[in-house]
Design goal:
Layout (H helix, E strand, L loop, with lengths): L1 H23 L6 H40 L4 H35 L5 H45 L2
Helix pairs in contact: 1-2, 1-4, 2-3, 2-4, 3-4
C-alpha cells in the first residue's frame, strides 16, 4: 500500500513540476496544456496526500486495537502518534498550497491578481510537495517497519498457550 501511495505522490509532484515548466512556456505551449497538467497534478496530489494521512490514521487504529488484544503497553500507539506528528503538518500545508495555487492560476489568468503571485505560489508549492514526498517516503517506511514488528508480536502472542 505504501508503494502505491508514494507512486501517486511522486506522479503528482512530477506533474506539478511539468505544469510549472509549462507555465513559463505558455506562448509556445498552449494554455490548455498548462491547465490540464495543473488539473491532473492537483487531483493526484490531493488524493495522494489525503490517502497517506488516512492510511496512517487507519494503521494507528489497528495498532491500538492490536495492543489491546495482545495485552501490551502503549508503545505502538505512541510511535504511530510520533510518525503522524512528523508528517501531518507538512502534508496539510502541501494540500492547502496545491489547492490555493490552482485557484490562484485562474485568478492570474483572468488578471484578477498579478501573475507573479501565482508564479511564486507555484514554486513554494513545488518545493513543499518535494519535501512532503521525501518525508512521506521516510515515514511510510518507518510505518511499514512498525507494522512488521506488530505482526511479529501478534504472532508470538498467538503461539503462546
Amino acid at each position: 500500500m505504501a508503494i502505491g501511495l508514494l507512486t501517486l505522490a511522486a506522479l503528482g509532484t512530477l506533474g506539478l513540476a511539468a505544469a510549472v515548466l509549462f507555465g513559463y512556456r505558455v506562448p509556445v505551449v498552449p494554455l490548455k496544456t498548462h491547465f490540464m497538467a495543473a488539473l491532473l497534478s492537483t487531483t493526484l496530489l490531493v488524493m495522494a496526500h489525503s490517502f497517506i494521512m488516512f492510511f496512517l490514521i487507519a494503521t494507528g487504529v489497528e495498532m491500538k486495537d492490536l495492543e489491546k488484544a495482545c495485552g501490551g503497553g502503549d508503545s505502538f500507539r505512541r510511535r504511530t502518534i510520533a510518525l503522524k506528528s512528523r508528517i501531518f503538518p507538512l502534508l496539510t500545508g502541501a494540500l492547502l498550497l496545491v489547492i490555493v495555487n490552482f485557484i490562484l492560476g485562474a485568478a492570474a489568468h483572468t488578471r484578477a491578481l498579478p501573475g507573479w503571485v501565482h508564479e511564486g505560489t507555484a514554486w513554494v508549492t513545488l518545493v513543499t510537495c518535494v519535501l512532503a514526498l521525501a518525508r512521506s517516503y521516510r515515514v511510510l517506511g518507518d510505518n511499514n517497519r512498525l507494522i512488521a514488528e506488530a505482526t511479529r508480536k501478534e504472532d508470538s502472542a498467538r503461539s503462546r498457550p
